[in-house]
Amino acid sequence: MRYEYRTPGTNLWWGSVAAWCRAAHQIDARRASRHRNAALVAHAAAFPRALIDIQENAAAIHHALELLKYGPPSLRRPQRGHRADHPTTAIIMWLANRRAVLARLADEIPEGDNYRAIHGSGD
User: Fold this and answer.
1) 44 lies in some domain
2) Total number of domains in the chain
3) Residues lower than pLDDT 50 in the chain
């Protein structure tokens, strides 16, 4: 089952981390205004954990992390000392954890003694 999410206050729909990143760029490309800044804040806060947990694209995870850490001012996390209750703090943590899981899954099991004990010598 595939879900589509909508950024509150906009007509932008997305169903993957890569599509969320594209929508963030679309919002940021709008003319500078309070409405654009509010849309960026809403877009960051609307990032669901369920979407992160099923993500398999490590490049999209990395791009989303870059946007939330270093992207447009209304989208990125606040300065130190103001991050504790900000919605992007948890999202960045979830993205970083998912990136670590994907990195572990990409690594192959080294062919040491345990590998041979489980899988045989390959002869």
Assistant:
1) yes
2) 1
3) none
To which residue do tokens 């760029």 refer?
A: 25
By the 10 Å C-beta count (0-12 exposed, 13-18 middle, 19+ buried), 23 is classed as: buried
Q: Residues, the chain, total?
A: 123
For helices 17-28 and 34-45, angle between their N-to-C axes, nearest 10 degrees: 170
Report pTM: 0.78
Asked, for residue 81, whether it belongs to a domain, the answer is yes
> Which token pair is 49?
């954990």
Residue 56 CA to residue 82 CA, distance in Å, equals 31
C-alpha 38/C-alpha 71 separation (Å) is: 15
Which amino acid is present at 97? N
Range of the domain at 82: 5-108
Would 70 be classed as within a structural domain?
Answer: yes
